[in-house]
């Protein structure tokens, strides 16, 4: 009985850890996409002019 | 976990952003500024009488400090974003039981260079300023699909069974079979030698930056994980 409870708790902890790391991965992916969009693809001309040389050097299809 | 992803990516991204900017100032920016001479018409290569000749040589560098600072800044942001995706790759493959080391990180960086720079460049070569090309949205869609297909394809080759590896290779080839969007007409105003040199310099400097990004991100990822 006691072992079962322990196993269940362990299992729950593992699932929780796995879920938390998935949340972290998703969060990091969202942040990465946002940064990449702003730096590489945002069409606003002020963004384009300031990022101009770097975008050309990185060959982003930005205009 | 999020803290590890973020700190590895930010430290590696900022460091590589500075290195990439220095490499660009040295090897890419002079060609880019020279390309702008043709874009603005200050220099003409294809004269109306049909002759093709123009002086070589770039204008003075570092005349606009703000522009150069922006190049450094945007390199930092871009490489931090790319480093986040590398770190996510490390986290996911570790969950699958694959150990991450600094050396493997270097291979990750080179593979990411192939996915994000080399494969799309085969269809959409790095462009000098003033290059006229197909509709930007079509090119962006092809670029994103090519990056994703190549990244997934390389992942299948690296981590999948043999059959998945063959599927991965097919996936890498697919965007090139479909073909990148191109115009029916050439509009280039710059000397062809300059365009070619710009494309190779752009790819070469990115290759170095990506390899270092993989190395640095993996080194920090392992370090912060053990801390």
From TrEMBL, chain A:
<protein>
    <submittedName>
        <fullName>Cobalt transporter subunit CbtB</fullName>
    </submittedName>
</protein>
<dbReference type="InterPro" id="IPR012667">
    <property type="entry name" value="CbtB_put"/>
</dbReference>
<keyword id="KW-0812">Transmembrane</keyword>
<feature type="transmembrane region" description="Helical">
    <location>
        <begin position="20"/>
        <end position="42"/>
    </location>
</feature>
<keyword id="KW-0472">Membrane</keyword>
<keyword id="KW-1133">Transmembrane helix</keyword>
<dbReference type="Pfam" id="PF09489">
    <property type="entry name" value="CbtB"/>
</dbReference>
UniProtKB/TrEMBL annotation, chain B:
<keyword id="KW-0812">Transmembrane</keyword>
<feature type="transmembrane region" description="Helical">
    <location>
        <begin position="72"/>
        <end position="93"/>
    </location>
</feature>
<feature type="transmembrane region" description="Helical">
    <location>
        <begin position="141"/>
        <end position="159"/>
    </location>
</feature>
<keyword id="KW-1133">Transmembrane helix</keyword>
<feature type="transmembrane region" description="Helical">
    <location>
        <begin position="105"/>
        <end position="121"/>
    </location>
</feature>
<feature type="transmembrane region" description="Helical">
    <location>
        <begin position="166"/>
        <end position="183"/>
    </location>
</feature>
<feature type="transmembrane region" description="Helical">
    <location>
        <begin position="203"/>
        <end position="222"/>
    </location>
</feature>
<dbReference type="Pfam" id="PF09490">
    <property type="entry name" value="CbtA"/>
</dbReference>
<keyword id="KW-0472">Membrane</keyword>
<dbReference type="InterPro" id="IPR012666">
    <property type="entry name" value="CbtA_put"/>
</dbReference>
<protein>
    <submittedName>
        <fullName>Cobalt transporter subunit CbtA</fullName>
    </submittedName>
</protein>
């Amino acid at each position: 009985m006691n072992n079962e409870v322990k196993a269940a708790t362990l299992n729950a902890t593992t699932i929780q850890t796995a879920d938390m790391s998935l949340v972290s991965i998703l969060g990091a992916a969202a942040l990465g996409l946002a940064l990449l969009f702003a730096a590489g693809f945002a069409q606003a001309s002020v963004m384009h002019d300031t990022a101009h040389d770097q975008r050309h050097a990185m060959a982003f299809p930005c205009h | 976990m999020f803290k590890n992803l973020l700190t590895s990516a930010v430290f590696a991204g900022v460091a590589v952003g500075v290195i990439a900017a220095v490499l660009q100032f040295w090897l890419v920016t002079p060609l880019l500024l020279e390309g702008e001479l043709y874009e603005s018409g200050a220099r003409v290569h294809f004269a109306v009488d049909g002759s093709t000749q123009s002086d070589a040589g770039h204008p003075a560098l570092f005349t606009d400090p703000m522009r150069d600072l922006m190049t450094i800044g945007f390199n930092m942001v871009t490489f931090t974003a790319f480093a986040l995706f590398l770190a996510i790759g490390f986290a996911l493959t570790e969950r699958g039981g694959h150990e991450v080391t600094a050396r493997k990180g270097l291979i990750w960086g080179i593979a990411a260079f192939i996915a994000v720079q080399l494969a799309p460049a085969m269809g959409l070569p790095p462009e000098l300023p003033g290059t006229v090309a197909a509709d930007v949205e079509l090119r962006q869609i092809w670029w994103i699909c090519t990056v994703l297909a190549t990244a997934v394809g390389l992942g299948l080759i690296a981590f999948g069974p043999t059959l998945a590896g063959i599927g991965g290779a097919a996936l890498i080839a697919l965007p090139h079979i479909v073909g990148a969007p191109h115009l029916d007409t050439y509009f280039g105003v710059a000397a062809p030698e300059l365009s070619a040199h710009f494309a190779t310099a752009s790819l070469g400097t990115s290759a170095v930056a990506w390899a270092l990004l993989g190395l640095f991100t993996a080194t920090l990822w392992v370090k912060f994980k053990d801390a």
